[in-house]
Amino acid sequence: MDPIRIAIVGVGKIARDQHIPAINGNSAFSLAATVSPHHHGPEGIPHFASLEDLIENGPAVDAVALCTPPQVRYDLAALALAKGMHVFLEKPPGATLAEVAALESRANKVGATLFASWHSRFAAGVAPARAWLAERTVKSAKIIWREDVRVWHPGQAWIWEPGGLGVFDPGINALSIATHILPRPFFLRTATLEIPANRAAPIAADIEFRDTAGATIHMDLDWRQTGPQSWDIIVETDAGTLKLSQGGAVLTLPTGTEHNEDMEYPGLYARFANLIRGGRSDADIAPLRLVADAFLRGNRQTVEAFHD
Amino acid sequence: MDPIRIAIVGVGKIARDQHIPAINGNSAFSLAATVSPHHHGPEGIPHFASLEDLIENGPAVDAVALCTPPQVRYDLAALALAKGMHVFLEKPPGATLAEVAALESRANKVGATLFASWHSRFAAGVAPARAWLAERTVKSAKIIWREDVRVWHPGQAWIWEPGGLGVFDPGINALSIATHILPRPFFLRTATLEIPANRAAPIAADIEFRDTAGATIHMDLDWRQTGPQSWDIIVETDAGTLKLSQGGAVLTLPTGTEHNEDMEYPGLYARFANLIRGGRSDADIAPLRLVADAFLRGNRQTVEAFHD
């Protein structure tokens, strides 16, 4: 089979660190072009200032990976789908739920693949965690995602603006894992969002979810964590405790701990190739829907101003 | 065919004014019981303090209509579905999007009907508006929903609490019509929510949506309107202007104005009976999804405190 000719749109840090190496490492793809008004891609790969420019003047491409901020992703995705291209969306898949639903329906109409990617679902411990939990009864779960925003998002003003997700930017990774590994759907019961006095988005959140069998899932998100950072999901079951730590990389079961190699972006691109070859889409919005529910239902508290 | 034996759960104003007369007026249904810890239903109809009590001690019922506030609706719906009953949800269908999705999936599993009702979609002008627009190209639309909260929601503190929708409580009716009559999907681009200094929910909102062909849909919601009230949707098309006014009751087309009889709740119950007879569900969450997107993305402004 000929490789899928793919263009990267948005050549920022995530594209350079993750997407380009994953594409280069997967023979199902060939990197056909890069698109960005700001940054060039790798030497020798045709580069365009805009997707329109690529479409008019560039080489033929079968697919695009959209690595731009979510606010501008809809227009790019709609244009690519209108040209029959397959679309890989970085997380979160859009700025709103309704635009992702519109893209999914458009993709189905034109017969193209839309892939809403959630990279944390491809962390090493996630697939075995899901398999283990599928045969257990979940009694309760805790999600503890506490990191230092000054380390991970230094000076990123947009993340605090309306439409930026604040602490849900990392928190949505936790939700993408939890919605994938927990065997029953869950939904929000109560939420408190802590908003710095000088910002629009939360710096911390305390959420209680419940699954359809009544089990409680508690989520503790905090961007003010100095010292050791926590990206842990702990699930109590009828067969003992499961712990996923380091953002899904390390899995501890009652039988011991597994450390496996990080395969997040290679895993995403393998999945994207499978979806394209199978003529299917995967636009699961469950993690973003839970975040929207938190904004819809949450109790907002104003806390100390945050300065970078 | 035997009538569908239905119980009303939550015997408040909406149940007495709308649901009970609509059920009594439709021979497909028979009112089998009422449930409320607070209020009795009509004379001669068996009454129970809780749904559990009805299930244990009451007559057999095939369906329930949930007329309680949305915050407690999930548990009632899940219990009813677990017993194989069909479920009619007042609007909005739940307190969160995820819980409605969980109910829909449960209903499909047990083979029961779940109906997320949007009464404004059955206002007299809505069906002909939808039919007329299906053959036109929409250039732009305006939704103007301005009413006096002191008249329509006097002293209803819960509507201002976190999880109460504020001005989106009436605004979601407008969105239920717009998502039904406009031929293309639309999604939020920008939103400003005005929150009174002493409340948690918006008293006004200014939203710009865009449809998938690029047409702008502007929504103006305000709960501070004294004097004449506005519940209007105006759509500019290639064949002239459509105006739905009085919440969908009155339709004005380039050819003239139609006044028809209000059939909202009779229309809802006719639809519910059809869904049950056809073994189908209708749990469209598009209106609530747009509201969640507004809370997720909206720019919040603090405005003057509101006192009843």
TrEMBL record, chains A, B:
Pfam families, alphabetized: GFO_IDH_MocA
Gfo/Idh/MocA-like oxidoreductase N-terminal domain location: 4-115
One GO MF term: nucleotide binding
InterPro entries linked: Gfo/Idh/MocA-like_OxRdtase_N, Gfo/Idh/MocA_oxidrdct_glycsds, NAD(P)-bd_dom_sf
Protein name: Gfo/Idh/MocA family oxidoreductase
